[in-house]
UniProtKB/TrEMBL annotation:
Residues annotated as domain HTH tetR-type: 13-73
UniProt xrefs under Pfam families: TetR_N (PF00440)
Keyword ATP-binding annotated: no
Keywords recorded for this protein, A-Z: DNA-binding
SUPFAM superfamilies named among the record's database cross-references: Homeodomain-like, Tetracyclin repressor-like, C-terminal domain
The protein's name in its UniProt record: Transcriptional regulator
Coiled coil, from the record: none
PANTHER family reported in the protein's UniProt record: HTH-TYPE TRANSCRIPTIONAL REGULATOR PKSA, HTH-TYPE TRANSCRIPTIONAL REGULATOR RUTR
GO MF terms held by the record: DNA-binding transcription factor activity; transcription cis-regulatory region binding
Top-level taxon of the source organism: Bacteria
Amino acid sequence: MQTGVNSRATKREQTRENILIAARKCFDAQGYDGASTREIAREAGVAEGTIFSHFPTKEELLISSVGDHLADAIKQGLHTMEPEWCFVDKLMHIASYRFAQIALQPGLWQVILQQLVFSPRKGAVKELMRGSGLIDAVMRLIEDAQLDGELNPAIEPAAIHKTVIALFLFTIHEHVGAENYDCEDMCATLRDLLETQIKGIWLRRPVTAA
């Protein structure tokens, strides 16, 4: 009996993954409005109703498809990161995996900007970042860097985190606008912004004698 339950759960999870892969492909090629749930179902090899048994709305499907993709990038970045790297190098390592995904499906990121970032329903972006593990991963890196003396411990980690995400989104927006999705170019842009912040704002300040 247990084997049958596990088999059904595995099949359901595989169906969900097939739907997410199909959704990313369709959103990338045709945009949010152009990619119908009927076409996504056809691409995934399932009935249209099956999509809604996994995702209540088309927007939820978009959030999940991007969130799972982002989670994969974070997982790969964290698992291949060297502990002795500096804060910026660790952030850039994670970002490089995400930029590589964007370079392969730039149309998908345009959908994200249009549907979630610049015209979001309340909480959609935070839901995506929290569900993917991005918030927790970046916060841990910030807190570790403050303990190690790389970043000013007087600054709230949440404030640094918000700025990191803002710089990431700015980088993507700049490259989407220029239609330049080269991974190395995106990494260079973000690194310059992060290093400027650290030198000018986040750097641990030396204690001066009174």
